[in-house]
Amino acid sequence: MPKRSGIKRPTDFSQRALQVVREATGEEPKQEPPEKNTHAVALGRLGGKKGGKARAAKLSAEERSEIARKAAQARWENRPEDR
After folding, report:
1. What is the residue range of 62's domain?
2. b/e per residue, 26-51, with b = 16+ CB within 10 A?
């Protein structure tokens, strides 16, 4: 799983537990995530909103069908057996 940017936390379990205890007792102030640049957020959202529609417009019907077929196959392969 990729690490998310923002608050830096210890990866060691015991160090993380100590940090949680210190934050809960007030010995250490709770870490707040850094503020985001509103212009960068708007720019990223703009591209993200266009992405799927632009990609679909470039693909042929056969290519879209093949992508959908692969996605459905992947969902069925990951399906739990006890259902």
Report:
1. 43-83
2. eeeeeeeeeeeeeeeeeeeeeeeeee
